Amino acid sequence: MFEKSKGTSAENIINQVTLRSLKKARYSTENAGHFGLASSAYSHFTSPIRRYPDLAAHRVITDYIEGKMDYQRLEQLEKELAQISKHSSERERNAIDAERQVDAMKKAEYMQQFIGKSFDAVVSGVANTAIFVELENTVEGVIPLSEIRSDYFVYFKELY
């Protein structure tokens, strides 16, 4: 599907719908493996200066390499990492929300100069009262159906 849509007008929509259908990632102390890699054991991390969860993973690995991983340390880590995972997941969601809000503000600010102008757009979603569109420049918008006077629309929710 991705290969077939590559380079077509449907490519972006297919990519977006696929990404939106995936479960949100979260940090956890439970080893859930990696579905895509078909691996029962999995961890990932980047440079420890980037994110706190990466720093926590580096600390655990360092403790293991340096022989500091005894039963007492494991019990301590179990408590600490559960809290770190929960807190980090919450903070990451907050950061993503803040990023989206700033993106929306900047796009609205940019589009002010085009008020009253018409654009070609791709329909990215449909609801019973509005159509969601995306412009070529990645700006997204909502068109209330009440604003579209030149045609008649029927929304079949069960087909969408």
Profile the largest sheet: 3 strands, antiparallel
Percent range of helical residues: 40-55%
Q: How large, in whole angstroms, is the Cα Rg?
A: 23 Å
Shape: elongated
Structural class: mainly alpha
Residue runs with pLDDT of under 50 for 5 or more positions: none
Question: End-to-end distance, in Å?
Answer: 19 Å
Question: Element order, helices and strands?
Answer: HHHHEEE
The percentage of residues in β strands lies in 5-15%
Biggest sheet strand line-up: 1-2-3
Domain unit count? 2
Distinct helical segment count = 4
- Average residue-wise pLDDT: 85
Total beta-strand segments:
3
Structure description:
With 160 residues, this protein is mostly helical. The protein folds into 2 domains: 2-116, no CATH class; 118-160, no CATH class. Helix content is 44%, strand content 11%. The chain contains 4 helices and 3 strands; from the N terminus they run ααααβββ. The chain has helices at residues 2-5, 11-21, 52-65, 71-111; strands at 121-126, 130-135, 140-144. It has a 3-stranded antiparallel beta sheet, with no helix packed on it. β2 (130-135) and β3 (140-144) form a beta hairpin. The longest helix is centred in the middle third of the chain and has 41 residues, at 71-111. It starts with a helix and ends in a 16-residue tail after the last strand.
Brief rundown of the structure:
The chain contains four helices and three strands, in the order ααααβββ. The protein is mainly alpha-helical.
